[in-house]
């Protein structure tokens, strides 16, 4: 299960936001020192989770033999690493720890009321004094009185290029589904997958082979899983999921 270090994460951001480079370096050094105890407390649980994963279905003689063969095959390529990074959580991804204050505040922040205006803004919509009841055509503040063309949003051609939104991992996954030929229920499959741990290949296999059964063939499942693991650097052993 994912461990989230809320306070430590916010403090990392705060350290980077220090504009003075000398103070920023001190802030990072302080962050490392103060964050280390919290990380250390989580290490034992992460190691236990790793052992549980490696030994799953490996306590019988047959299971142990299969696991031994697998580990001997991958030992030269798969290394024990600790991966501490900044990343998004899946929509329904289970986690331990706590969310940072910044995430909680973002959720709780009210949507600004567009109909309200600040005390120092008089009649924001037209920059006209509330006492000015003259029509636009007779208003000396109207640029049209002086032959100036006013460009409004209505007069701007709708064909102007719009800035592209940055692509997300979910966009990449949808494209992968389509490229593999799983074009039916693409949106639903992607939503299901990103509701869980997208870095867990067992979760991906469950979504493709169980939840999306009838929409994704076994060949497509193999292709999608192999490509996702390779491009995202996710540990994956073909033999754990498929028997040829």
Report what the structure shows.
By secondary structure, the chain is mostly helical. It has eight helices and two strands, in the order E-H-H-H-E-H-H-H-H-H. The protein folds into two domains: 105 residues, no CATH class; 72 residues. 46% of the residues lie in helices and 3% in strands. Helix 1 runs antiparallel to helix 2, helix 5 crosses helix 6 and helix 7 runs antiparallel to helix 8.
Offer a quick outline of the entry:
This protein is mainly alpha-helical. It folds into 2 domains: 105 residues, no CATH class; 72 residues.
Poorly predicted runs: 114-140
- How many DSSP E strands? 2
DSSP summary: helix tally: 8
β-strand amount: under 5%
How large, in whole angstroms, is the Cα Rg?
A: 28 Å
| Strand order in the sheet with the most strands | 1-2
């Amino acid at each position: 299960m994912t461990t989230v270090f809320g306070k430590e994460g916010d403090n990392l951001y705060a350290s980077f936001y220090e504009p003075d480079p000398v103070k920023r370096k001190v802030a990072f050094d302080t962050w490392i020192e103060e964050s280390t105890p919290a990380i250390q407390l989580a290490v034992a649980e992460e190691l236990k989770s790793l052992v549980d994963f490696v030994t799953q279905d490996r306590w019988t003689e047959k299971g142990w033999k299969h696991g031994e063969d697998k580990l001997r095959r991958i030992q030269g390529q798969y290394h024990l690493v600790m991966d501490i990074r900044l990343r998004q959580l899946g929509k329904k991804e289970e986690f331990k720890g706590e969310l940072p204050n910044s995430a909680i505040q973002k959720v709780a922040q009210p949507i600004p009321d567009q109909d309200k205006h600040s005390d120092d803004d008089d009649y924001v919509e037209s920059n006209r004094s509330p006492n000015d009841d003259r029509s636009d055509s007779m208003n000396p503040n109207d640029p049209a009185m002086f032959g100036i063309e006013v460009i409004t949003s209505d007069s701007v051609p709708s064909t102007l290029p719009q800035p592209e939104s940055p692509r997300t991992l979910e966009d990449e996954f949808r494209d992968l589904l389509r490229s593999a030929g799983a074009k039916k229920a693409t949106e639903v499959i992607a939503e299901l997958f990103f509701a869980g741990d997208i870095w867990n290949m067992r979760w991906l296999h469950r979504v493709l082979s169980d939840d999306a059964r009838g929409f994704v063939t076994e060949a497509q499942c193999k292709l999608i899983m192999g490509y996702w693991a390779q491009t995202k650097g996710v540990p994956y052993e073909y033999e754990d999921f498929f028997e040829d």
